[in-house]
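Please, structure for the following, as tokens.
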Amino acid sequence: MILTTTSILEGKTIVDYKGLVTGETIFGANVFKDIMASVRDIVGGRSATYEKTIADARETSLREMVARAEALGANAIVGIDYDYETIGNMLMVSVTGTAVVVS
């Protein structure tokens, strides 16, 4: 599966548009993570726990979107866009793109 944030693929021709595909993931942050992140914020530095949570959510959303595109018969997704939102103390990552067939 070819994945890109652009609307075209250099050297490839889009021969069929299969439609919009999405992937969404919501992760809750537990109290221990929140306390450790607060300590890290106070003393400075990066919060590896939250960075890993965000990376995991992004990858899970991307895998979900790819599976939906494959089910439509696509071999590429163009115009990929990520969106990050917080809902209370939960993190939502959503990814959208257009499933296409390229040759």
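Helices lie at 31-43, 48-71. The longest strand covers residues 14-28.
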